[in-house]
Amino acid sequence: MEHYHMNLNLKVWRQKNSNTKGDFKTYQVKNISSEMSFLEMFDVLNEQLITEGEEPVAFDHDCREGICGMCSMYINGKPHGPWQANTTCQLHMRAFKDGDTIVVEPWRANAFPVIKDLTVNRSAFDRIIQAGGYISVNTGNAVDGNALPINKDNADNSFAAAMCIGCGACVAACKNSSAMLFLSAKVSHLALLPQGEPERKSRVMNMVAQMDKEGFGACTNTGACEATCPKEISLTNIARLNSEYLGASLSADK
Amino acid sequence: MLNAKIPSGPLENKWADYKGHCKLVNPANKRKLEVIVVGTGLAGASAAASLGELGYKVKAFCFQDSPRRAHSIAAQGGINAAKNYQNDGDSVFRLFYDTIKGGDYRAREANVHRLAEVSTNIIDQCVAQGVPFAREYGGLLSNRSFGGTQVQRTFYAAGQTGQQLLIGAYQALERQVALGNVTMYSRHEMLEVVTIDGKARGIIARDLVNGKLERHFGHAVLLCSGGYGNVFYLSTNAMGSNVTAAWKAHKKGAAFANPCFTQIHPTCIPVSGDHQSKLTLMSESLRNDGRIWVPKKQNDTRKATDIPEEERDYYLERRYPAFGNLVPRDVASRAAKERCDAGYGVGSSKQAVYLDYADAILRYGKIEAGKQGRSNVSEEEIIAMGKEVVKAKYGNLFDMYEKITGENPYEVPMRIYPAVHYTMGGLWVDYELQTTVPGLYALGEANFSDHGANRLGASALMQGLADGYFVIPYTLGNNLADEIYSKAIETTHPAFEEAEKAVSDRINHLMNIKGKQTVESFHKRLGKIMWDKCGMARNKEGLEQAIREIQALKKEFWSDVRIPGEVNEMNTELDKANRVADFIELGELMCVDALTRDESCGGHFREEFQTPEGEALRDDAGHMYVSAWELKGEHQWELHKEPLNYEVIKPTQRNYK
What we know:
heterodimer; A: alpha+beta; Ubiquitin-like (UB roll); Fumarate Reductase Iron-sulfur Protein, Chain B, domain 2; two-stranded antiparallel ribbon; 8 helices; B: alpha/beta; Flavocytochrome C3, Chain A, domain 1; Methane Monooxygenase Hydroxylase, Chain G, domain 1; five-stranded parallel beta sheet; five-stranded antiparallel beta sheet; about 40% helix
């Protein structure tokens, strides 16, 4: 693979804190290697800003291997940037060419208020999990792991839903700022397993109620969430969530 | 100073006896007892959830925006348990034995046996929580093999086992938050331990959003803050992983054990340039099916696929025929370094070896053809079928490799090189996981206890969850039973005031340096010193030089670091500066420790101590002890030795040939 270097124009959202209005600032970075990750390019920008006596851009990041779900940049109009099934930290600079202008914004959603620059508050997701995204089993209550055989298809589908990293790209991509893909992934993960059966109805009712309370929008099935999801969580999960919700709503015992 | 409090009696009865006789706290009293948990990875989340379930009042802290993001999430390969579901001869004793041997006879027998005992409970608990482990078609749990063992005892969820286990623990934790038993403080960093009358009684934490310092009381404080691999700057750890919580404890009197025992993982994606901010691990499970090789010719510049079979050196299979590509991590890492240093490395940097899946793809393709009862199958079809099987097993890892390098590992062998991954050293703890400061505990990677000088693959997840789910609920109760008359102490107590002032003074000092160099540049320089002189191979001269360089670096840091921004707001540079300042001090202690350990064992390889074949030369007569360091003043430590008594296992030279 050929490596190359590039100069770039960056338009980056700067916002001092949640009480202050933000705006775009333009920066130039030079001699960026195509082998760098997108966040390493931001490291270069920040080192440059500090040296020039400016404040670096605040952005969330941690594992830098696409699994912790912390990084959250809206790049050229797409959450996590141009690559499919990818997180910001795994986006590499070979996706860009010399002279490009790159626009970088935070996630935009009422339920994710900006804390500073590109950092947003996603604690609403934690509260949705608190509403029922678990199986109520205290430590020590378990039977032998193989006492409960689980159909492999269900186990695999449950795993595919459980791969959600909770980054919030689905919300950022959705014109309604809906959290349905996130919520449906958790409901599916647990509803597909026999362990999740006892709390199946109350779980979906409570989690949906919490989602609404947090101010996330409604789902209109445009599928932008699925298209942007770094873990390719499928829209099938939303269909399952709807059926779980309908079933629970119609059921006499919740 | 060191009393490991290992229960008497036969090894296999120690933990059962301990549980049978330890003190209990009744439910009404548990509600009055407050526990602080710092860190929400596998150890912290499982501990906070389990203690919340028991009824203790728990406060949990993490620096990330959500407890679900702790770096345990990045563990790929799996978790060991002595279930013997495969009927291949596994047992609690075997897991215990493999762990002690893998750790090169520098771990405590009693702790490791307990770990092996509770390993089976962990799997059961996680299944009950809904952790979607890989399953066979019959619906039962699947296993894979891992380095350093000859049985299949590793449970896994594709290449995302850590993520799934952490989500399980996180959900259990959030359930306790919803029930009001745990209060969660995310985007908070612990910056001081508060001690009153010699006991840990709370912490000072900084709210990373508004910069405010907060005081929190606890009858006990649990540090579950992970390892310190980022002292090397480049490692497989997350960017935020740090030693700060453990180091503050060390400065308040907690002994730091075996700091030089660091694990260099053999299969990581090689460094590509000066811009590199972190390294990415390719799971050790890839060594199950992949074959590691370098060209037989030095400085061979041909493409991997142009090098014929007979001109390839499968050096692990050649040197270690019994274990082959599945030798333990320390052995595999050193072997890769040896080949590269001798001029056989590949890729543009020549600091890499090949991990090749061509054979595995063919083998799986043939099995697939056989399953379908087809005999006249073309090689292309076999390869296509084989790729599908490999994709199902390792697809996410192959994708990750391709994203980072831009190369397709289904077509060309992956290039890999060792990288810092895990730290076996950590805060010294006794059998109850209590540090040398009463009331202060360390769990998971933050303590030193179970992996000796080298950790086996798939054992970190096991230890983190063992400590949190199954050990601390008993051992903490045993100690808190004596605290039921201790009322919660107001945080207006002078000890809290002093601790907060010390933290505040230090932060103001850092901010007022207003120097010229960035925090990052200091961290990079520290990392280079550590990697060059206290990395995969160490020697006396290099370590002595490293100590001098680190001392000079510390002076320079405290006189020339530049931290922009304000104290009372989100300030990521200040967060980093606090951490790097602690890493610099830790780096010195690691070199001091490496210098006094005149032997090679596990991850610690001293060039002066090796066999004629280049294998590690252990010195059991002189060094069969845990080094526990007590801080005495700036650049001054006192060494305390905890002798290791092997009652059941007879230490021998590790042999993987």
